[in-house]
Design goal:
2 domains, AhpD-like, 4CMD/NDH-1_regulator, 79% helix, single chain, Decarb_PcaC, 129 residues
C-alpha cells in the first residue's frame, strides 16, 4: 500500500471511527476495491489529511456541500463523524443555514431533518453504553 493510502486509512479511522471503516472493509469486494482505494487516497489521504483546514471546519464544509448538492445519503455518516472532528450541533446548524441561503431551503430542511435524527440516535447509543 502507498503512504497516501496508509495516511488516508488512518485519517478515515480518526474521522469515521474504527467500526465504520471495519464494516466498509469487511464488505469490500474486488468490484469496489478500486473505488475504496481512490477515496482512501484522495478524500482521506489528501483532502482530509491536510492540516490547512481544521477537522471541525472540514466537517462543516463537507456537510454543507453534501446538503447543497443533495447528497443526503452521506449526511448521517458525517453527522456521526462530528463526534470525532469537534464540530458541534450549533456548527452543523450554521452550515445548513448557509445551505438554505445559497443552495435552497428544501435541501437545508432535509439536511436538518437528517441531522436531528442522527443526533438523537447518537445520544441514545451513548446513553445505552
Amino acid at each position: 500500500m502507498s503512504s497516501r493510502f496508509e495516511k488516508g486509512m488512518a485519517t478515515r479511522r480518526t474521522v469515521l471511527g474504527d467500526n465504520h471503516v471495519d464494516r466498509v472493509e469487511a464488505n469490500k469486494e474486488a468490484f469496489d476495491e478500486p473505488f475504496q482505494t481512490l477515496i482512501t487516497e484522495g478524500a482521506w489521504g489528501t483532502v482530509w489529511a491536510s492540516d490547512r483546514v481544521s477537522m471541525r471546519d472540514r466537517s462543516m464544509l463537507t456537510l454543507a456541500i453534501l446538503a447543497a448538492m443533495g447528497n443526503f445519503e452521506e449526511i448521517p455518516m458525517h453527522i456521526r463523524a462530528t463526534a470525532n472532528t469537534g464540530a458541534t450541533k450549533d456548527d452543523v446548524l450554521e452550515a445548513f443555514l448557509h445551505v438554505a441561503i445559497y443552495a435552497g431551503v428544501p435541501r437545508a430542511n432535509h439536511a436538518i431533518k437528517l441531522a436531528k435524527q442522527t443526533f438523537v440516535e447518537m445520544e441514545t447509543e451513548t446513553a445505552n453504553k
